[in-house]
């Protein structure tokens, strides 16, 4: 796909970008909030910089934080 074709695709499907943004922003906000509350600066930076359409954010919220919480309870 050339640059012009990519640009035309984005112009013709602007609603797709809006939908992805509406989906991603709340997940990113929640994941960043959890990372800051848990004092995990590396996770905060990774979540802030990488844009994975909320996939990484969901993994962090539901799997990474739960696993670390269980490790603390086992001690």
List keywords for this structure.
single chain, 75 residues, mainly alpha, 4 helices, elongated
Furnish the topology, listing elements before pairings.
Layout lengths: L2 H10 L1 H24 L3 H9 L5 H20 L1
Helix pairs in contact: 1-2, 2-3, 2-4
Low-confidence stretches: none
* Inertia-based shape: elongated
> Helical residue percent?
over 70%
Give the N-terminus to C-terminus distance in angstroms. Answer: 53 Å
Number of helices: 4
Mean pLDDT: 89
Assembly context of the chains = single chain
What can you tell me about this protein's structure?
Keywords: Membrane, Transmembrane, Transmembrane helix. Residues 13-70 form the DUF5652 domain. InterPro entries: DUF5652. Pfam families: DUF5652 (PF18893). The chain crosses the membrane at residues 12-30, 42-63. By secondary structure, the protein is mostly helical. It has one domain. The protein has four helices and no strands. Helix 2 (14-37) packs parallel to helix 4 (55-74). The radius of gyration is 17 Å and the shape is elongated. The mean pLDDT is 89.
Short description, anyone?
The protein is mostly helical.
């Amino acid at each position: 796909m050339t640059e012009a074709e990519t640009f035309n695709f984005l112009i013709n499907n602007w609603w797709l970008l809006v939908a992805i943004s509406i989906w991603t922003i709340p997940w990113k906000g929640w994941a960043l909030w959890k990372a800051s509350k848990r004092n995990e600066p590396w996770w905060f930076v990774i979540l802030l910089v990488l844009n994975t359409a909320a996939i990484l954010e969901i993994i962090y919220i539901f799997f990474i934080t739960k696993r670390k919480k269980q490790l603390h309870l086992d001690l």
